[in-house]
Amino acid sequence: MRKRRGIVLIVTLWVLMILVVLALTFAATMHVEARAAANELYRTRALYAARAGVERTILAIGQDQTGYASPLSEWAALDSEADEFPFSNDERYEVTVTDECGKIDLNAADEELLAKLPGMTDALIASILDWRDADDDPRPDGAEVDYYSRLKPPRECANRSFLTLPELLLVRGFTKEAFYGPKVAGQTRFETTAPERATEEETLPLEELLTVYGGADDLDAQGQERLNINVADTTALAEWTDGILTEGDVQAIVDYRGSMGAFDSIGELLRVEGITREKMQQAADLLTTRSRASESSGAGSTTGEQPPPGMPTVPGPPDDAGQPTLPGLGGDTGRQAPGGETPGPPGFPPPTPDPEGPTPPQPSTSNVADIDLAALPEAGDFRPNILNLNTAPPETLATLEGMTEQVLNAIADYREAQSFTTRGDLLALKEMDEALFAQLVEAVTVRSSTLRITAIGSVDEGRIRVRVTAVVDLKQSEPRIVYLQAG
Fold first, then answer.
1. How far, in Å, CA of 353 to CA of 477, rounded?
2. Burial letters for 112-127: b for 16+ Cβ neighbours within 10 Å, e otherwise?
3. 3-state secondary structure of 293
4. CA–CA separation, 22 and 430 (whole Å)
5. Could you give the residue ranges of the DSSP H alpha helices within 168-226?
6. Cis peptide leading into 153, omega within 30 of 0?
């Protein structure tokens, strides 16, 4: 009997031990699942905090009336802790904005322009051109379908324009180190640490030099159309420049044009008697040498392969239309003829467009009957590879024809303290001579047509962080998200 009771005790202890182990295992499993559920909730909150940062930035862009895009703009770096719309819980967002108009358009750059970028070799350039051309014939040092089909796993050669910039990593010869930079090349797409920018001594990675959303419309800093000096008469020139140029100045311009032929650049106006640097600085942003029928041309390139006006279409969420466009960014309004009235305060959208598609704005000529419409560029006259003076890094500014190191340094010094408000402000640089101004002025802008918004949302005292990247098209009456990535 005593032996039997001992066996029962041992069995009971084993059963209790098993039950304790099962209970502890169940508790641990429940704890892990509860923590996973909490983390998922935190990630969702962080995601929507980041999305709130994107939308808040779009709102701030729409409220900006400065007429130019610059790192000194209030919307260029937003933080929910300093925002007038704080969160009620511990959610937080941090936003940085990058101007795509400060980069080289990968789809529009020709061989000569690509060769000016740091790190580009003949083989890399040939591979880019083969990837985006329509045929299967490889260039010397290039790569077409024969090369890509032998890879493991094999892939197609696109033979079309790049749709996104990371697509460049599919092209032969391009590495993560060259694309992202050595500091972030090893990170996975799930890591949310913001990439560090290169220091002055380091070369910027290709991610910060190239884009598929580059270029700008041929509009002035306020998003209004420019007057073509090659066809406008004296009345139009005088009215359009609104007191900047005198009657004698505009007559001298017309006389010079009649004897010397058409102007190749508005900078050549400095050759005309009576046109001083001060007058040119004020008038440069109002004038152009381009007509309605002129072809788009890029900075440092006039013969490269040109994509259709605009940008590759990357579908975005249908509810992501944002706020009214910033005059210095989007291009929704046309210049009223001198004496005309602007419909509504600047920066607010025009009446709702026809759902079939927007109608390009037409300039009013009600008060200046002899302004020839051919003297105005067609609304939305898109020009790839026009660089924003305020946001372009030295590496892309250096690709502009005629650019010198001395002027590059002068531009960098100028924008440390203030922004270029029009392209005419180039003449504020003492290093800028008249010949170089004529080369540069029509290759630059102070506007942006596309911004990249990077928002990092965080919760739980920053332990959970989620990054959202949105590319926002500003060329329409309202900002429109054309690319969105979370994670």
1. 9
2. ebbebbeebeeebbbb
3. coil
4. 81
5. 176-180
6. yes
Q: Which residue has the tokens 């900047």?
A: 244
Percent of the chain with pLDDT over 90: 54
Which DSSP symbol is given to 68?
S
Neighbouring CB atoms inside 10 A of 419's CB total 20
Beta-carbon contacts of residue 46 (< 8 Å; ≥ 6 apart): 91, 457, 458, 459, 464, 465, 466
Tokens of 149: 């089909």
What are the tokens at 140?
């010397």
Span 156-175, pLDDT tens digits: 999 999 999 999 999 999 99
Q: Are 140 and 114 in contact (CB under 8 A)?
A: no
Q: Across the strands, what pairs with 78?
A: 95
User: How far apart (Å, rounded) are the C-alpha atoms in residues 93 and 319?
Assistant: 21
Q: How confident is the model at residue 84 (pLDDT cuts 50, 70, 90)?
A: low
Cα(100)–Cα(282) distance, rounded to whole angstroms? Answer: 26
333-352 core/surface letters (b: 16 or more CB in 10 A; e: else): bbbbbbeeeeeeeebebeee
How far apart (Å, rounded) are the C-alpha atoms in residues 453 and 451? 6
Mapped onto helix, strand or coil, the DSSP state of residue 83 is: coil
Residue of 153, 155, 189, 150 whose CA lies nearest to 171: 155
Confidence (pTM): 0.73
Closest by alpha carbon to 227, among 288, 186, 170, 166?
A: 288
What one-character-per-residue DSSP string does 18-68 give? HHHHHHHHHHHHHHHHHHHHHHHHHHHHHHHHHHHHHHHHHHHHHH--SSS
Spatial distance between the Cα atoms of 306 and 314, rounded to a whole number of angstroms: 18
The yes-or-no verdict on residue 478 having pLDDT over 70 is yes
Look at residues 412, 454, 377 and name the one whose alpha carbon lies nearest to residue 197.
454
Whether the CB-CB separation of 115 and 104 falls below 8 Å is answered with no
In whole angstroms, what is the distance from residue 183 CA to residue 196 CA?
7
Average model confidence (pLDDT) for the chain? Answer: 79
Please, are residues 449 and 215 in contact by the beta-carbon 8 Å criterion?
Answer: yes
